[in-house]
Hints:
By secondary structure, this protein is α/β, with parallel strands linked by helices. Helices cover 30% and strands 27% of the residues. The N and C termini lie far apart (49 Å).
Amino acid sequence: MDRITPCIWYDGDALGAAEFYVTLLPDSRIAKVTRAPLDTPGNRAGDVMMVEFELAGQRFMGLNGGPVFPQTEAVSFVIRTDDQAETDRLWDAIVGNGGKESACGWCKDRWGVNWQVTPRRLLDLVGDADGVVAARAMTAMMTMRRIDIAAIEAAAAGAKA
Length: 161
């Protein structure tokens, strides 16, 4: 068993969120659903209280804790993508299921959880030892919502938009 498991606080639909998340990535599954054995401040007896799930092999827990602690951008989940098709598929899935676009590859799902759909190529370019290449890539990224890998590569190479 994992020693550290990130716990995500939900306002009543941890199971729905987990069921959606496991459709996004291979090696993902719902591992366990725990129902409240008695009434608590956040749940009634029999309600789904916790959901343990895995995304790409990483274990998470969803807790139905109620509206007390809403999600913020202070915590987000980065999905490193291999190509534009994967970037588009994940972005469209999250945003298209009641989510919202944000800037620089960030989006928020319908439960308020923040995701960064981030192409590995973007990370390579903004981390380039040549500061000019990195700055060009970063400047291009700052104008985007969904990341466009071809546009980032063109900017990094010095092409004018």
